[in-house]
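Why do we bother with holo predictions? Because pocket geometry can differ from the apo form. Keep that in mind while you read this record for iron/sulfur cluster.
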Amino acid sequence: MTRAAKRAERAAVDAGSGTHDADGAPDAPFYRAGLRFECQPSCGACCAQPGKVYVTRDEVKALAAHRGLGIAEFRRRFVRRERGALLLADRPEGGCVFLGPDLRCGVYPARPTQCRTYPFWPEIIADAATWEWEGLKCPGIGKGDVILADEIEVRSRETSSERV
Ligand code: SF4
Ligand code: SF4
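The structure, written out:
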């Protein structure tokens, strides 16, 4: 796709999602009335997808303690490096190393920030179309209680700060 086509597509998405008012000024976010989300039991879809689970050094420390391992051993078994960043290792069949056969997270109380804040990542709440698109992958989107806009922004900011 050319950059012009990409801009045209972006403009069409913005027109549909209300991210700008008639003067082109930024509008209230599409999620101003909140968004429904509730993680579904026995799903695990987001953890089974190929992807990258970034971890900070503090998170590695907390994960190692949760597993009752020393940091060096935990890193050897469960962490990989990519371009200087620390990531959780993958299962041989793909997906996160901590996703169990019961589709539950094996480190849930100590899971990394990006796991706790999903799906309220900045790139996913950028506009309504992206949020709806993510809903095709995550069956929890659109279900459960409404998460208020303030809380959505707290989780989104938390995700961003962890990626710095
Ligand atoms: S894909 Fe959505 S519903 Fe499924 S485990 Fe992940 S967050 Fe929960
Ligand atoms: S740490 Fe847990 S919640 Fe995060 S991707 Fe792995 S299995 Fe899923």
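The pocket of iron/sulfur cluster (ligand 1) is lined by residues 39-40, 43-46, 118, 138-140 (CB under 6 Å).
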